Amino acid sequence: MDRIRIVGGTPLKGQIPIGGAKNAALALMPAALLTDQPLTLTNLPDLVDIRTMATLLAQHGCAVSPVAPPNGHEPASTLHAKRITSTTAPYDLVRRMRASVLVLGPLLARAGEARVSLPGGCAIGTRPVDLHLEALKALGAEIELEEGYIKATAPKGLTGNRVVFPKVTVGGTENALMAAALAKGDSLIANAAQEPEVCDLAHCLTAMGARIEGIGTSTLQVSGVSALGGITHRVVPDRIEAGTYAVAAAITRGDVTLLGAPNELLTAVEKVLVESGVEMTAEGDRLRVRADGAEIRGVDVMTEPYPGFPTDMQAQMMALMATASGSALLTETIFENRFMHVPELTRMGARINVHGASAIVRGMPMLSGAPVMATDLRASVSLVLAGLAARGETVVNRVYHLDRGYERLEEKLAACGAHIERLPGNGG
Ligand SMILES: CC(=O)N[C@H]1[C@@H](OP(=O)(O)OP(=O)(O)OC[C@H]2O[C@@H](n3ccc(=O)[nH]c3=O)[C@H](O)[C@@H]2O)O[C@H](CO)[C@@H](O)[C@@H]1O
Ligand SMILES: C=C(OP(=O)(O)O)C(=O)O
Description:
alpha/beta; 30% helix; binds phosphoenolpyruvate; cell division
């Protein structure tokens, strides 16, 4: 297994291009199952998760062209599900990536049935899919759990209805939206997730012919249509990748310009960074992040559904706060077990105490490099960030987590002066 070796202490300076959002792409790709026409997605990131989704869609009969830049433009892929040849999403693929459960709504809507493995828990929490299932039941699906699989049928098709989520769920909203788009009649999705990735899916579905109102609010109104068509859609930029590199600039006290990162996607993260002493200047889709000469102060952070501070940035912000002057209280409200990076950051000298859902971080002037073990995607990148700021050498093991969500990470950081390299093999 590959490892990443970093020798820290160099302030990053330069430009970093931001790719398409993994979490938007993972919802947009299954939308291809809703139509017999081709769906072309541009600005598609080339990531392990995207390849896993492509493999899953191929299993359902959807032809997926390899991600390649058409005529020298942005990387793109065309997904064409002329016919659904299988409605089973097998355990082996679903266990690799929880977003696989997003084929459930589209398969049910298009083919009237789906058999999708239950995803199970993961490093950051139990992550049930009960709310996805309740939403689809409200739309008329009959659902049973059988031998670890969700067996869903809608022999007479789905019917529009009121879907009220008791808790905000990104994936649940996406599944409900895709199912409602082809259901008979009107649906109202209340307490819907408002994440930019959900909005991106809603915009794409609308361009495909779906009738959706309230995009960007917590109430989505969907008037079902009988068929959707093919289009070309550009995946929204990855606000988590952008936020991660903004923290990279801040933690190394550097000066980095993010390219293709509209700052309206970063509002909550930007607010915390600015409050901590980072200078952020937006010019079109360029965002300059300056912390050279800055004193970074501790800022309290609580994760919340969008537009609140994203849970997918909590680990990165914790690494930054570990180098701040003063203390910060970080509270995680979305996932029950998303502090797996704490013991590893502690190995690098960070002073962090966890009390239930909150972590008190007492900043210190300098972290020290150490061998560390990554446990999930954002925990892994928080260790890379800490390594960039630390004195001496850090080796991050289990790099495969990073490859799920960061395209050319070492290349992008090295271009700004970071001493970072991938060591192939035996990281354990
Ligand atoms: C591929 C993708 O887009 N992943 C993102 C998506 O994950 P995902 O869509 O899995 O996250 P959800 O918004 O659904 O989860 C939010 C909370 O609701 C709970 N829940 C969810 C569904 C359900 O049926 N029952 C239930 O109890 C979850 O366990 C969690 O505690 O949103 C999360 C929250 O912003 C992000 O961290 C993930 O990066
Ligand atoms: C938790 C994440 O992804 P997933 O929902 O695919 O596990 C993430 O992107 O940080």
